Amino acid sequence: MSDTPSGEPGSTTRRPRLTVFSGPSGVGKSSVLAELRRLNPDIFFSVSVTTRSPRPGEVDGVHYHFVDPAEFQRMALAGELLEHAEYAGNQYGTPRGPVEAALAAGRPALLEIELQGARQVRRAMPEAQLVMLLPPSWEDLVHRLSGRGTEEPALVARRLAVARQELDARDEFDATVVNTDVRTAAAKLLTLVVGPGLSTNACS
């Protein structure tokens, strides 16, 4: 696997836009995004709503907004979600208001969502940029998921099956970044999010 350029024009000046960041479970999205946040805290990171239970160490309102199924249904019916999808038996969605407010204020916005949600955003906002994070190899991803030790083997097998489907959809994305090293991957993602020549605003 290799990195794929975004195909953006050479201009270093553009209006902020939405970047959708996706990738299979276990590929290291959280680690890359943590480094991206350190590099450039001016980027707006959307916090998704989910019906799944918090994992150890996750904080409500920071990692996700954890809600019950009834509240999630209410938000979806009220049009408060930019996208929503089911993944591994749970519901996930993106609050619409904060994303639109950030873009209107001139801040680039980033969503971390699954493939179903990325496809919805592409339909709703064709100008959004879709970026997929890839593992160095399939074997590496299998090792990462199996090595978590926090889930039953049947659930790991299910996640691997979903991961294969997600990787097969990589051609639907505008760019891919291979996570061989977290810092390198975050630096490449930063350039995609803010544009060539603008990532120099990043914090050291």
Automatic annotation (TrEMBL):
Keywords associated with the record:
ATP-binding, Cytoplasm, Kinase, Nucleotide-binding, Transferase
Which molecular function term from Gene Ontology is one that the record holds? GMP kinase activity
GO CC entries: cytosol
Give the highest taxon in the source lineage. Answer: Bacteria
The UniProt transmembrane annotation reads none
Q: Where is the composition biased (Polar residues)?
A: 1-13
Q: Which SUPFAM superfamilies match?
A: P-loop containing nucleoside triphosphate hydrolases (SSF52540)
Q: Which residues form the Guanylate kinase-like domain?
A: 16-194
Q: What is its main location?
A: cytoplasm
As for what it does, the entry says:
Essential for recycling GMP and indirectly, cGMP.
| Protein name, UniProt field | Guanylate kinase
Q: EC number(s)?
A: 2.7.4.8
What are the subcellular locations of this protein? Cytoplasm
- Read off the PANTHER family from this record: GUANYLATE KINASE (PTHR23117:SF13), GUANYLATE KINASE-RELATED (PTHR23117)
Q: Which reaction does it catalyse?
A: GMP + ATP = GDP + ADP
Q: Which family would the database say this protein is a member of?
A: Belongs to the guanylate kinase family.
| Residues that bind ATP | G23, P24, S25, G26, V27, G28, K29, S30
The lineage is: Bacteria, Bacillati, Actinomycetota, Actinomycetes, Pseudonocardiales
